[in-house]
Every structure is written in structure tokens, then in C-alpha cells.
Amino acid sequence: MLNLAWRNLAQNRIRLLISAGGVGLALTLVLSLDAVVNGVEHQLAAYIERSGAEVWVAQQGVRNLHMVASTLPAGAAEQVAVVKGVASVTPLLYTTQSVQMGRDSRLSYVFGLPLNARAGGPWKVVEGKALPAPGEAVVDSQQAKDSRVKLGGSIRVFGRRFKVVGFSQGGSSLTNSVTFISSEDFARLRRTGSNPSFLLVKVQPGTSPQIVASRIQRQVAKVSALSSTEFAQQERKVVKDMGADAINLMNLVAFLIGLSVLALTVYTATLSRRAEFGVLKAIGADTGQLVTTVLAQALYSVVLGLLLAGVFSFLVLPLLLPWLGFNLPLQPTLASVLKVSLIALGIGGLAAIIPVIQIAGLDPAIVFRGGGR
């Protein structure tokens, strides 16, 4: 019966191509969207995870980095520094600001760091130095290349000219670049005073970041303290919450596309062989065997579509998008593959319902009356 199912599909290769291609297109849509969202999550959480900090301290109620305003109370850094288990504290000033690079104006995450920063600096410097002195800036290498800004050149941050002394890599996201300046320049130009936005805490060897975060939360007033792992999870949650409706809508669209294409294909393949099914039933094949054949047709189409979606999403798109000039972060995950596989099985099962009902109710006598064609 499985061989019969394959022959029914493969006999008309155009129909097979349309079936597998339609399902593959629908599943590619789901895989690609998930890969983009996961990529954006990874980009936004990358600075937190690679900052070198093991605990993040923010203004009370603030539990993530982006799209928030955080100003810690005066003396918070000194209070955190004496908490048991704390090895070092780096004050970080942060905002989102338009940065003038050459003729381009780019939205950037601007970080202000002290010269002796133990955490929070760019984690990968490809040229120049990592920590800027007053009047200096470290910028993303790709953004600088796109704007034709060279080492020793200048950019404008907060309306003031800064000399570019280093190029970092890996910190930019889909929408924003990253810029590092000294905390002295940041505080003076923003007129926000010296109160930091965040404190980046390193803990003593052998000490749990979660335990230190709990101590800080209890002992220091008007702050929120989270381990870097928890802080990064909250950052990813922001992306998930923002994109949940769009993702669900696109998944529904993909499901309906795949269902429509596969249902039509399986129905047509079954209808065109209705007489053969009647003959099989007349010579002793039971309904269960015939239903298995129809379900196998749907399953074959789903498996081929899933393979096409995997090849396109994992191999073709990562090469095609940069060639077309799209800077989309793609990060497929096992969870996405499992979700797509379940969607594919659901599509196959629903698509086979009408043909299964037809076959189950097929009367072998129609074959001999010439009504099976």
C-alpha cells in the first residue's frame, strides 16, 4: 500500500512538485520567521551575555536593557560594592541616540564607560583599542565600513565630534549599531549627572550570581538586581512579546497555504485513482489498507515539503539574503524544527480527511458499473 501511495503521487511529477513545493513554501515561511525572531533575540541579548558582568543592577522595576530608562540612586555603586560576594562594580551609562557617521545618521545604543571598566566594553575589537578616553569613541566595524568612516576619523554623538579609536564587532542588531564613549563625556553632554544607568557586577570566584543578586536586592534600596542569565531572558521576552501576534498570524497563514495545496493534491491524486481503489476493495483490500494509502500520500508530500523547507531555510537563505543586501539575522533552532514538523503533520492529517471519507465509503460495485472513472 505504501508503494501504491508513492506511485500515485510520482506518476504525475508536476502534481508532486506542486504539492511538495507548496508545503515546502509554507513551512519555509514558518522556519524563516522563527529564525529571524530568534536571531533578533540573540542580537539584543548578546551585549548582556558577553558584557563580562555576572549580575546586572538597574533602577527599581527595570528588568531589561532596551527600550527602558534607568537611573540608579546616588551612592548605589558604593552600596553594591560592599555586598558580600561582589568582586567589582562597573557603572554603565546608557541611552539610544542618533549618531552621525559620515553622511549617514544611524540609530545607536550609546554606552558610557569609565577608563577602568572591568565589564561592559566591546567583547571583540577588530582594530584599535577597546576602551575610549574622553573625546574618543569605539564604533561597530560594519557600520563604519558602510559609512566609510576609518580609524582616526570622526563621528558625532550628542552633537559633539568624537575621534574613532576602535572598531568592535558583533554588538549591532537589526535596527541599531553600538557606540562606546567615556562616561565622563556621556555625563557632561547628556547633563544627567554621574548617576549610572546600570551597575555591572562581577562576583567572587565560587560565588553564585543568583545569591549575590538576591543579597543586593535585599540590602540596597530602590534597585532591581538580576543575574546576567535572568537579565538576558527578560531581554528575549521583550522580543517575544512584541512579535507574538505577528508570528502567530504568519504561522496561521503558512498553515492555511500548506493545507490548501496539500489537500487539493491528495484529493486529486485519490480521485484520479478512484477506480483502482474500487478494484482493490473488490478483491479483498479492507478499508484500513486503503485509508493507509491515502494517508501515506499526504505523508510523502509533507516529508518532501519539510526537506525542501529545511534546505531552503538552512542552506539557501543564509547565502541568498546577504547577496540581496538584506541584513537579517537568521538563527534556526531545534524548537522551530519540531514546531514546523508538528505543523506539517497537522497539515497532512487534515488534508487527507476528505479523500479518506471518500475511500471509506467507496462501493466496489461502481467499478463494474463503470462509475469509478
Description:
The chain has helices spanning 2-10, 13-50, 76-81, 141-146, 183-190, 209-219, 228-272, 274-282, 287-324, 334-351, 353-360, 365-368; strands at residues 55-59, 86-101, 104-113, 125-128, 136-140, 154-157, 160-168, 177-182, 198-203, 223-227. With 373 residues, it is of the alpha+beta class. It has two domains: 2-44 and 241-368, no CATH class; 51-236, no CATH class. α2 packs antiparallel against α10 and α7 (228-272) packs across α9.
Salient structural properties:
373 residues, alpha+beta, 2 domains, 6-stranded mixed β-barrel, 12 helices, elongated
> For the report, how would you describe the main beta sheet?
6 strands, mixed, barrel
Task: Give the strand tally.
Answer: 10
Estimate percent helicity.
40-55%
Side-by-side strand order of the widest sheet: 2-3-8-5-7-6
- What is the domain tally? 2
Radius of gyration: 29 Å
* H/E topology pattern: HHEHEEEEHEEEHEHEHHHHHH
Q: Helix/strand-derived class?
A: alpha+beta
Helical element count?
Answer: 12
Taking the alpha carbons of the first and last residues, their distance comes to 21 Å
Mean pLDDT: 83
- Low-pLDDT runs of 5+ residues are none
